[in-house]
Specification:
Layout: H1 3-22, E1 33-43, H2 44-48, E2 56-58, H3 61-73, E3 80-86, E4 90-97, E5 100-115, E6 120-135, E7 138-148
Parallel strand pairs: 1-7
Antiparallel strand pairs: 1-2, 3-5, 4-5, 5-6, 6-7
Length: about 160
Amino acid sequence: MDEIKLHHRINLLNADYARCIDDDRMEEWPGFFVEDCLYKITTADNHARGREAGLVYADSRAMLQDRVSALREANIYERQRYRHMTGVPTVLDVQGEAPSFEVRVEVPFLVTRIMRDGSMDVFATGRYLDRVVEQGGRLMFKERLAVCDSNRFDTLVALPL
């Protein structure tokens, strides 16, 4: 597999993922994941200790779709939006060959939260630990763990990271 092309495709996947959330196109967000996936937001402490529970935990695309429905219809939270900044992905491992391969990737992130009144703050920093596969000619997340550097969140994690 061409390493430069793979890095480029992973960069595009992360850019599209961040833009989807930042542009409030939440209904499209579950489409970045395969049907049988894992999405979790956790802290670095919990991850280091092997604790499975997370602030957010979903183990299927259907659960991600339910989360979006809850965001739109049920949850009450102060309106906010995010701006993601992602760093250069590091490919940790590649298993298999195209079209049936899995890539383990680490990507640093910083998320700024913008509130309705215009105030901004650094909401989360950390790293994504991903397992990426190809389906239908496009890269998708089989697993995305958002491992946050801090254990403190000053509000409900309403939107996905």
